[in-house]
Design a protein that fits this description.
Elements (H helix, E strand, L loop, with lengths): L1 E8 L1 H18 L5 E7 L3 E4 L10 H6 L3 E4 L7 E3 L2 E9 L9 H8 L1 H9 L5 E2 L21 E3 L2 E11 L2 E9 L4 H8 L11 H4 L5 H11 L3
């Protein structure tokens, strides 16, 4: 597995890097899987590939120095602030069940399950869907593409497929500002379905997790 060194970039640059990594993998017919962990500065809202921005107060984003970008991957919007983002790129053919979207999510998400377990955090892949699909904020809905801790969503993921390759994006939530989220996404945030690293173990920092994920995935 190829590990891309951690960087903090603008939202636009982060999306360009992931796009270029995918395009280069396709062009060069790469077989090696690519795992990237990164941060964002300034804060940024990313919209899913097919999501319209009509719920976003652009004036509020501008006044609060929050960028807005569109992801290649699907799903709903995220605020990239107090979190760690990952991207994972691989040929569909190298996965055991790559042709199945849900099974491919489960296979890729294994890169987190064992390292988190060693840290004392038992993550589960959600086998059910929340009935409330009319929300803008991604973390309020759990599907088989996500990882939860004690029934609450911690890591949300989404995919994009092109020419036999998968790009999977995901967000590991370290903390969140409920009031800020409600202003950005124009909806009530249900904290009963969301968790974060600060709630689970506040002693684990972003850089602790960066080092640990690298060590336990043999980069």
């Amino acid at each position: 597995m190829k590990f891309v060194p951690f960087e903090v970039n603008s939202g636009l640059k982060n999306m360009i890097i992931d796009r270029d990594l995918l395009e280069n993998a396709i062009k060069n017919k790469e077989k090696e899987h690519i795992f990237r962990l990164y941060g964002w500065s300034p804060k940024c809202v990313s919209l899913g590939r097919n999501q319209k921005p009509d719920f976003i107060d652009m004036k509020f984003l501008k006044e609060n120095n929050i960028d807005l970008v569109k992801r290649l991957t699907g799903g709903r919007a995220l605020l990239h602030d107090k979190e760690l983002t990952y991207s994972y790129i691989c040929p569909i053919s190298t996965l055991n069940n790559g042709d199945s979207i849900m099974e491919s999510y489960k296979e890729i998400l294994q890169i987190f399950i064992e390292p988190f377990k060693i840290l004392g955090i038992e993550l589960q892949i959600t086998e059910r869907k929340h009935s409330n699909l009319h929300v803008n904020y991604c973390m309020q809905i759990s599907t088989s593409a996500d990882l939860c801790y004690k029934g609450k969503k911690l890591i949300g993921s989404a995919q994009f497929r092109k020419e036999g390759y998968i790009l999977q994006h995901g967000s590991i939530l370290f903390d969140y500002d409920k009031n800020l989220l409600e202003k950005i996404f124009n909806e009530r945030i249900n904290t009963d379905v969301i968790t974060c690293m600060k709630e689970i173990n506040p002693d684990i920092s972003t850089f602790d997790l960066l080092r640990f994920l690298g060590k336990n995935n043999e980069f």
